[in-house]
Amino acid sequence: MNKKLAAALSGTAVLVLALSGCGDEGNEKAERWAQEYCGSLQKQNKTIDGANQALARITEGDKSPEEVKKTDVEAFGDLSTAYKALSTAVRKAGVPPLEDGSRIQKNAIGRLDALSATYADLRERAEALDEKDRSEFADGLQDIAGEMEKLPKQFGEVEKALGEFRQGDLQEAIAGQDGCRKPSPAPSASAA
C-alpha cells in the first residue's frame, strides 16, 4: 500500500504545480478571471499539502488501526473539500476569456468534481473500516489502496484540464496572482 500511496501523493504534487501558471500580466478580463480563480487556490493548496503529508506520515512505522482510520478519514475529507473548493473557484470565476472558454471551464469543473467525489468515496470507505477486527481492517485498507490506484489517472485528467487555462493573456494574469504562484516543492513520500 505504501508504494500506491506514494504514487498517489506524487500525482497530487504534480497537480498542485499544474494549478499554477507562468508569465507577467494580462488584459482586464483575464485579470478579473485570474483574481477570482487564484483567490482560493493558495488556501486549497495548503489544505491539499497538509492532507498529503498526513497520509504520508501514517504509512511510516507502526500505527494503530485507530490512528490510521482517523488520519485517512480526515485527510480524504480534506482533499475532497479542497478539490470541490477549487471547482467552485473555477465556476465562480466564470467563463475564462479564451477561445472555447465555456468548454474549457466545464471540463475543468467536471474533472475537479470527479476528483472530489473520489476522495469523498475514499473517506466513506475509511469511515466504514472496523479497526477492532485486524484482518477485516487490513482487507479494507487493501480495498482503499486499490481505489487509490485510480488517482494518478484522475490527476492527469485534472492537470490537463487546468493546463488549458494557460494560454495568452490568461496565462500571464494567472502568473501575476499571489495565489497562483508555484508552491515550494513538497517533501517526497517515496521513502514510504
TrEMBL record:
Residues 172-192 are annotated as: Disordered. The lineage of its organism: Bacteria, Bacillati, Actinomycetota, Actinomycetes, Kitasatosporales. This is Small secreted protein. It comes from the Bacteria.
